[in-house]
Write a structure and sequence with these properties.
Layout lengths: L1 E6 L4 E8 L2 E8 L62 E6 L2 E3 L5 E5 L1 H6 L3 E6 L4 E8 L4 E2 L4 E4 L11 E7 L5 E12 L12 E5 L18 E5 L7 E7 L7 E10 L12 E3 L24 E5 L7 E6 L2 E2 L12 E3 L2 E3 L2 E2 L2 E6 L6 E3 L5
């Protein structure tokens, strides 16, 4: 979506809005003198010569966004007397995409005008679009409806912890054309599993494509992420945080990102996690500290993107503990193609050829 914004040094202001991606202009004339004094209007509407050195020429962005659907006419009405012809001032229209931007606090925002950001309830995160826009950071908490890209969903009172029990639910209603949603768990600390089950606190994403297995989470998951395919489903979707009566300083801050079909950052279909860097750390959910418990009944794919000039992926286990060992690894295992790994490994590795992606399936647990 593009928005048009007007900058002029005189008292005429052109207000704009966007309908279906097409800028719509409305001319508003302000501080115009009465009809008797308009005859000498040079001080209100300078001639074209006055604009030869206008600072409006310093605007670097596009100014050609008026079309047949744009009403940009400005006029003085209710006059029966002849007037000397005067030229209206040159009005520069500055436009910029409502794309992602980096806020000064390190978070991601969306570039809007300051007025739009305030209207949507966002937080000013600094400037964008050559200082013509505001990097608007969207935040949400319980009982919110999330419609904006890069919205941060956090516990009430964040960054302070939250000790109440009960439920915290919000709805996601992404814009049309969204085919995938990324949840980035910047901070995630709730009551952990007991015996591998999230019977106390839990978090779940509700919705997504039919047959998609989205894992239930609990415990410590800061730094983790997962993708949800939604191209074959209909919104709205739900974020549900269930909290038991156990006293615990709960804390979460989850970034919600929307991807369209042609987005270069979109993960391949059915990949819960997706890594595109040359090196990195892949760990199971709730993998924090030596005493961390695995969460039961997780079955998902971890995918690695293809990097130019590289033809294989190597995964080093340090350590890997998947419990039961059997000839067919029928319980918990990590698989690369037809190869399965189960049991305990203090140091081991596997290498797989990579064409587009290389999945690692985790039916139950991965340590």
């Amino acid at each position: 979506m593009r928005h048009a914004h007007v900058f002029t040094a005189v008292t005429c202001l052109l207000m704009t809005r966007t309908v279906s991606g097409v800028p719509q202009g409305h001319g508003i004339l302000t501080d115009v003198p009465d009809t008797e004094s308009v005859r000498d209007s040079t001080k209100y509407f300078p001639s074209s010569a006055d604009h030869s050195s206008s600072s409006a020429d310093n605007f670097p962005l596009s100014t050609d966004h008026f079309s047949s659907s744009t009403d940009s006419a400005l006029a003085v009405s209710n006059s029966s007397k002849s007037r000397d012809g005067k030229l209206f001032p040159v009005v520069k229209i500055v436009t910029f995409d409502n794309g992602p931007c980096n806020a000064t606090n390190g978070q991601m925002g969306t570039c809007y005008s300051e007025q739009e950001c305030v209207k949507m309830g966002g937080v000013n995160g600094g400037s964008c679009a050559n200082s013509y826009g505001t990097c608007c950071v969207m935040r949400a908490t319980c009982n919110s409806v999330i419609v904006s890209n890069n919205t941060y969903w956090s516990n009430p009172g964040y960054p302070s912890s939250y000790s109440s029990h009960g439920g915290c639910m919000s709805t996601i209603n992404p814009p049309p054309g969204t085919c995938q949603i990324l949840l980035t768990f910047i901070v995630f600390d709730i009551v952990g599993p007991v015996g591998g089950d999230c019977n106390n606190d839990s978090f779940i994403f509700v919705g997504g494509n039919p047959g998609l297995q989205i894992p239930i989470l609990c415990g410590h998951n800061g730094g983790q992420h997962y993708y949800v395919d939604v191209d074959a489903s209909k919104p709205p979707y739900q974020l549900i945080m269930s909290m038991s009566g156990i006293s615990y300083p709960r804390l979460w801050n989850i970034k919600i990102t929307f991807f369209t079909l042609n987005s270069p950052s979109k993960a391949p279909a059915r990949c819960l996690q997706y890594f595109t860097t040359q090196t990195g750390l892949v760990s199971s959910f709730n993998h924090v500290g030596a005493s961390a418990q695995m969460i039961n009944d997780h079955n998902y794919a971890i995918c690695f993107g293809c990097i130019p000039s590289y033809c294989a992926v190597s995964v080093n286990f340090a350590p890997l503990d998947l419990g039961h060992v059997g000839a067919a690894c029928g319980h918990d295992y990590v698989a690369s193609g037809a190869e399965k790994y189960c049991g305990q490994y203090t140091s081991s590795s596997m290498v797989g050829d990579v064409m587009v992606l290389w999945p690692v399936h985790v039916p139950h647990r991965l340590w």
